[in-house]
Amino acid sequence: MLDRHDDDPPDDLIEWLLTPHKSYLGEVDELRALGVEPKALAHITGGGFFENIPRVLPDSIGAEIQLGTWDVPAGFRHLVDLGDVPDSESFRTWNMGMGLIVAIDADDAEAASASGHPVIGRLVESDTGEVELVGDWR
Fold it and tell me: Which of 33, 44, 66, 120 ranks highest by number of CB atoms within 10 Å?
Protein backbone atom coordinates (compact mmCIF):
# COMPACT_ATOMS: atom_id res chain seq x y z
CA MET A 1 0.00 0.00 0.00
CA LEU A 2 2.86 2.38 0.74
CA ASP A 3 4.45 1.87 -2.69
CA ARG A 4 1.43 2.47 -4.87
CA HIS A 5 1.27 6.25 -4.35
CA ASP A 6 3.72 8.99 -5.19
CA ASP A 7 3.24 10.60 -1.77
CA ASP A 8 5.99 9.61 0.64
CA PRO A 9 4.75 8.32 3.99
CA PRO A 10 5.81 10.25 7.07
CA ASP A 11 9.37 9.34 8.11
CA ASP A 12 8.16 7.55 11.21
CA LEU A 13 5.17 5.71 9.66
CA ILE A 14 6.96 2.40 9.12
CA GLU A 15 8.44 2.51 12.62
CA TRP A 16 4.98 3.38 13.98
CA LEU A 17 3.43 0.43 12.11
CA LEU A 18 5.99 -1.95 13.62
CA THR A 19 5.54 -0.76 17.21
CA PRO A 20 4.09 -3.52 19.44
CA HIS A 21 0.83 -2.68 21.17
CA LYS A 22 1.06 -1.45 24.72
CA SER A 23 -0.20 -3.14 27.84
CA TYR A 24 -3.34 -1.49 29.17
CA LEU A 25 -3.09 -2.94 32.68
CA GLY A 26 -1.82 0.40 34.03
CA GLU A 27 -4.89 2.25 32.76
CA VAL A 28 -7.25 -0.34 34.25
CA ASP A 29 -5.39 -0.12 37.58
CA GLU A 30 -5.68 3.70 37.48
CA LEU A 31 -9.44 3.46 37.06
CA ARG A 32 -9.75 0.97 39.90
CA ALA A 33 -7.67 3.24 42.15
CA LEU A 34 -10.28 5.95 41.51
CA GLY A 35 -13.05 3.59 42.56
CA VAL A 36 -14.15 3.04 38.96
CA GLU A 37 -14.75 -0.67 38.46
CA PRO A 38 -14.67 -1.84 34.83
CA LYS A 39 -17.76 -3.79 33.80
CA ALA A 40 -16.25 -5.04 30.53
CA LEU A 41 -12.98 -4.66 28.62
CA ALA A 42 -12.75 -4.77 24.82
CA HIS A 43 -9.26 -5.02 23.32
CA ILE A 44 -9.66 -3.40 19.91
CA THR A 45 -7.68 -5.60 17.53
CA GLY A 46 -8.56 -7.11 14.15
CA GLY A 47 -12.27 -6.57 13.70
CA GLY A 48 -11.98 -3.08 15.14
CA PHE A 49 -14.86 -1.51 17.01
CA PHE A 50 -17.64 -3.38 15.20
CA GLU A 51 -16.54 -6.89 16.17
CA ASN A 52 -14.68 -6.46 19.46
CA ILE A 53 -17.11 -4.30 21.44
CA PRO A 54 -20.17 -6.55 20.88
CA ARG A 55 -18.17 -9.56 22.10
CA VAL A 56 -18.12 -8.18 25.65
CA LEU A 57 -21.75 -7.00 25.78
CA PRO A 58 -25.08 -8.81 26.13
CA ASP A 59 -26.98 -9.23 22.85
CA SER A 60 -29.54 -6.61 23.91
CA ILE A 61 -26.92 -3.87 24.41
CA GLY A 62 -25.28 -1.81 21.69
CA ALA A 63 -22.79 1.03 21.80
CA GLU A 64 -22.80 4.57 20.44
CA ILE A 65 -19.24 5.77 19.88
CA GLN A 66 -18.91 9.54 19.69
CA LEU A 67 -16.20 10.28 17.14
CA GLY A 68 -14.03 13.29 17.88
CA THR A 69 -13.78 12.52 21.61
CA TRP A 70 -10.15 11.38 21.22
CA ASP A 71 -7.31 12.24 18.87
CA VAL A 72 -6.82 9.68 16.12
CA PRO A 73 -3.04 9.20 15.72
CA ALA A 74 -1.38 10.64 12.63
CA GLY A 75 -0.41 7.16 11.37
CA PHE A 76 -4.06 6.10 11.11
CA ARG A 77 -4.96 9.43 9.52
CA HIS A 78 -2.27 8.89 6.91
CA LEU A 79 -3.38 5.32 6.14
CA VAL A 80 -7.02 6.39 5.81
CA ASP A 81 -6.07 9.23 3.46
CA LEU A 82 -3.55 7.14 1.50
CA GLY A 83 -6.05 4.37 0.82
CA ASP A 84 -9.14 6.58 0.70
CA VAL A 85 -10.57 4.21 3.32
CA PRO A 86 -14.17 4.93 4.43
CA ASP A 87 -14.87 5.30 8.14
CA SER A 88 -16.92 2.11 8.20
CA GLU A 89 -13.87 0.14 7.08
CA SER A 90 -11.30 2.12 9.09
CA PHE A 91 -13.08 1.45 12.38
CA ARG A 92 -13.68 -2.19 11.39
CA THR A 93 -10.00 -2.78 10.59
CA TRP A 94 -7.99 -0.65 13.02
CA ASN A 95 -8.34 0.61 16.57
CA MET A 96 -7.92 4.21 15.39
CA GLY A 97 -5.95 5.00 18.55
CA MET A 98 -8.37 3.42 21.01
CA GLY A 99 -6.68 0.11 21.84
CA LEU A 100 -8.81 -0.72 24.86
CA ILE A 101 -12.40 0.26 25.52
CA VAL A 102 -13.62 -0.03 29.09
CA ALA A 103 -17.32 -0.18 29.90
CA ILE A 104 -18.06 1.60 33.19
CA ASP A 105 -21.14 2.80 35.06
CA ALA A 106 -22.43 6.11 33.71
CA ASP A 107 -22.04 7.50 37.24
CA ASP A 108 -18.27 6.94 36.97
CA ALA A 109 -17.82 8.77 33.65
CA GLU A 110 -16.92 12.11 35.24
CA ALA A 111 -14.21 10.57 37.45
CA ALA A 112 -12.74 8.68 34.49
CA SER A 113 -12.75 11.77 32.30
CA ALA A 114 -11.26 14.02 35.00
CA SER A 115 -8.34 11.60 35.36
CA GLY A 116 -7.51 11.77 31.65
CA HIS A 117 -9.41 8.74 30.36
CA PRO A 118 -11.65 9.90 27.50
CA VAL A 119 -15.31 8.98 27.67
CA ILE A 120 -16.03 8.07 24.06
CA GLY A 121 -19.63 6.94 24.07
CA ARG A 122 -22.40 5.15 25.83
CA LEU A 123 -24.15 1.81 25.95
CA VAL A 124 -27.71 1.68 24.64
CA GLU A 125 -30.55 -0.82 24.51
CA SER A 126 -30.49 -2.45 21.10
CA ASP A 127 -32.28 -5.20 19.20
CA THR A 128 -29.10 -5.90 17.25
CA GLY A 129 -26.28 -5.21 19.73
CA GLU A 130 -24.46 -3.18 17.09
CA VAL A 131 -21.90 -0.41 17.41
CA GLU A 132 -22.88 2.92 15.89
CA LEU A 133 -20.34 5.64 15.06
CA VAL A 134 -21.71 9.12 15.71
CA GLY A 135 -20.17 12.37 14.47
CA ASP A 136 -16.86 12.95 12.73
CA TRP A 137 -13.28 12.29 13.80
CA ARG A 138 -11.51 14.48 11.25
Answer: 44
Query: Cα(64)–Cα(38) distance, rounded to whole angstroms?
Result: 18
CATH class for the domain made up of 13-134: alpha beta
CA–CA distance, 79 with 90 (Å, rounded to integer): 9
**72 DSSP 8-state letter:** P
Instruction: Return phi, psi of residue 106, to 5°.
Output: -55, -35
Return the domain boundaries, the chain: 13-134
Q: Compute CA 104 distance to the chain's CA centroid, rounded to the nearest angstrom.
A: 15
For the chain, 138 residues long, give each residue's pLDDT as a single digit of tens.
444 444 555 667 888 888 888 899 999 999 999 999 999 999 999 899 999 999 999 999 999 999 999 999 989 999 999 999 999 999 999 999 999 999 999 999 999 999 999 999 999 999 999 999 999 999
